[in-house]
Amino acid sequence: MRHWIARQRYLIDYTVAAMARRKARNLGLLLVYALVVFVLASVLLYGHALRREAALLLAEAPEVVVQRLLAGRHELVDVNDLERLRGIRGVRRVEGRLWGYHYDPIASANYTFMVPPEGTVAPGTIHVGAALARTRGAEVGDVLAFRGVDDRLFPFQVAAVLSPDSAIVSADLVLLGESDYRAFFGIAPGRFTDIALTVANPREARTVAEKVLRALPGSRPILREEMRRTYAALFDWREGMVLVLLSGSMLAFAILAWDKAAGLSADERREIGILKAIGWDTGDVLGMKLWEGALLSLLAFLLGFALAYAHVFLLGAALLAPAMQGWAVLYPGFALIPAIDGLQLATLFFLTVVPYTSATLVPAWRAAITDPDQVMR
Amino acid sequence: MSVVVELIGVRKAFHEGRPGELWAVDGIDLAVAPGQVTVFTGPSGSGKTTLLTLIGCLARPTEGRIRLDGEEVSGLPERFVTDLRRRTFGFVFQQFNLIRGLSVLENVMLPAYPLAPHYPALRRRAERLLAHFGLGPRRDAQVEWLSGGEAQRTAIARALINDPPVVIADEPTANLDSQLSTAFLDIVAELRDQGRTVLLTSHDPLVYEAPVVDRIVAVRDGRLVS
Predict the structure, then answer these.
(1) CA A113/CA B50 separation, integer angstroms
(2) What's the pLDDT at B198?
(3) Do A282 and B78 touch (CB under 8 A)?
(4) Would you state the pLDDT for residue B6?
(5) Which of A11, A20, A377 is nearest residue B113 as measured by Cβ atoms?
(6) What residues of B are in contact with residue A3 (Cβ under 8 Å)?
(7) Residue B68's closest CA among B39, B41, B40, B32?
């Protein structure tokens, strides 16, 4: 084993020296390769981080949300509906929620108005999302006015700006007290936007949803799992679209890299002949070429991945955000929590490092099996 | 250190069974005594270089047997032949065949890499050889900047790095002037004094008429000339 390791060190030593002699070629290949990895890794990292962000936020969402439908449209629920759902076995908590959308002509953006569950917002005040605060230039203590029901102007004092950690869904959020909400939208007491159900055993959510349908005919129960899948599908679709758009240029890069890797120059063939003549066998030559491919592609992989990481998590994926993020009308200002999916990383590694390394082996093997007496001629 | 080389009915064909088939070596029986300097002479295309490649296990004979110290090597698998080659033979090629872009020291150490010796020991051995051949100050120079004589001495140092009992040199003086050729023959004498077998090809009288040469073998049309 020690002999094997020592031999590999000698092969690596020679490979590094050989690569340094063809600086321009190897540097060019390295850059092209790193660029391909950068693009792929950026899309994958960004898509994964978006899905994870959404999943983290949904983790705190109720297991089941019940909406009333009237003529196929969303209708307000009545306080009596809440009482009927409280009787369902397995339901731990029933809560009427108040939320809605408001178009702000000043910012040309849609905001989500919501009453937080525990009355944490004092009357006359609001908590706003970070992107909204930035768009309206509002800080804590400022007064923001919105036109509500009957086009009346409602002034609110900004009591807090929401943490940007949850920016993906809270960017356009306005949290306000229940009485303010009802006054703003003109919703009578005893009426709610929808109902949130907390289920004792989340695995029974589907059974509970069936019971809800029996208790409130014409209602629409939405499972948390369904919401999670909707978010995932949305980001999967966007990720797929971006990859399809980029696939042409990536294929061109891949062909270039393959061509460079698979072709041996006359100098390289001569060099392989010399090495064989002075005592290297086919295995030594292949080992050297394997290291050459592995070192180059590994370096390109690390460089491309590091750049992609910085691009996504430090620079907010400036090159991809307009295509992949798109959230309602207002784009939230993002600070994604760094998240790497091990399986995705391994897939990317095997899709980039292994094919390149293999591509270098076939021509090297062809050159290495020729008789070493060629160099005598 | 001595190795007896024997060739029995050795033939070597190129493009066998195809148009342009050529028997470069055509039935050679030969025994090379250890510790001697043997020169193969003959005109261009006579088969002397092919003969050296067969003896040095760089190529396999099409027919016949080659024995080293009584052990047949012509039928061994590549791995064994390569191992035998790097332990038994050191090669000095006509064009020297040094690897460009590497230093003199790196070129000299290259044949030992697959054997993975202790690195400081290998480096010391290479530096000793370079110092011996007057190349100590040039050890870090890239080989493309060497003069003809320096390049040949580097090639000789490389041939000796694995301490082989047999040194093979193909037309070693073809690219050297008379002064450098004489210097090369001094090295050959030294190798012989160390007990090594030296096999050369040459049609340079300066070489085959040199007092250091023990035996001259004339080759023509792939056969030995009696």
Answers:
(1) 91
(2) 95
(3) yes
(4) 92
(5) A11
(6) 116
(7) B32
Chain B residue nearest residue A287, CA to CA: B114
Q: What is the secondary structure of B110-145 as a DSSP string?
A: GGGGGG---HHHHHHHHHHHHHHTT-GGGTTSBGGG
Residue of chain B with shortest Cα separation from A19:
B101
How far from B17 is each of A377, B20, B21, B22, B65, CA to CA, in Å?
22, 9, 6, 9, 21
Comparing CB atoms, the residue among B79, B99, B170 nearest residue A274 is: B99
SS3 track for B49-103 = HHHHHHHCCCCCCCEEEEEECCEECCCCCHHHHHHHHHHHEEEECCCCCCCCCCE
Search chain A and give the residue with CA nearest B77. Answer: A281
Cβ contact, residue pair B162, A279, below 8 Å:
yes
- The DSSP secondary structure of A18-29, one letter per residue, reads HHHHTHHHHHHH
Indicate the pLDDT class of residue B9, thresholds 50, 70 and 90.
Answer: very high
A145 bridge partner residues:
A155
Q: Per the confidence metrics, is the pTM higher than 0.80? A: no
**B142 to chain A, minimum CA–CA distance in Å?**
11
Show residues of chain A in contact with B50, CB under 8 Å.
373
B42 is written with which tokens? 């003959």
Q: What is the pLDDT of residue B103?
A: 94
Question: Both tokens of residue A35?
Answer: 């660029």
Neighbours of B117 (CB within 10 A): 17
Cα separations in angstroms, A62 against A23, A94, A284, B140, B144:
59, 10, 62, 72, 75
With an 8 Å Cβ cutoff, are A7 and B114 in contact? yes
Which residue, chain included where needed, has tokens 């042409």? A248
**Residue type (1 letter), A230:** T
Q: Are A261 and A25 in contact (CB under 8 A)?
A: no
Positions of chain A with pLDDT lower than 70, given as ranges: 119, 164-169, 245, 249, 257, 259-262, 322-336, 374-377
Nearest-Å Rg of the Cα atoms of chain B is 17
The pLDDT, as a whole number, for residue A322 is: 67
Neighbours of A46 (CB within 10 A): 28
Considering Cα of B119, then B125, then B127, then B133, what sign does the dihedral take?
Answer: negative
Task: Report the amino acid identity of residue B3.
Answer: V
* Spatial CA neighbour of A36 closest among A292, A307, A281, A366: A307
Instruction: Look at residues A33, A29, A75, A112 and name the one whose alpha carbon lies nearest to residue A307.
Output: A33
Q: What is the ipTM of this complex?
A: 0.90
CB contact under 8 A, B116 and A283: no
Name the residue among B50, B97, B116 with its Cβ closest to that of A6: B116
Say if the Cβ atoms of B93 and A375 lie within 8 Å. yes
Give the pLDDT score at A330: 44
CB within 8 Å of B201: residues ≥ 6 apart: B39, B40, B41, B48, B49, B51, B52, B169, B170, B171
The answer to whether B53 contacts chain A (CB < 8 Å) is: yes
- The two tokens of residue B222 are 């792939």
Q: What single-letter amino acid sits at A371? A: D
User: Does B96 touch chain A if contact means CB atoms closer than 8 Å?
Assistant: no
Summary mean pLDDT of chain B = 91
Q: Does B140 touch chain A (CB under 8 A)?
A: no
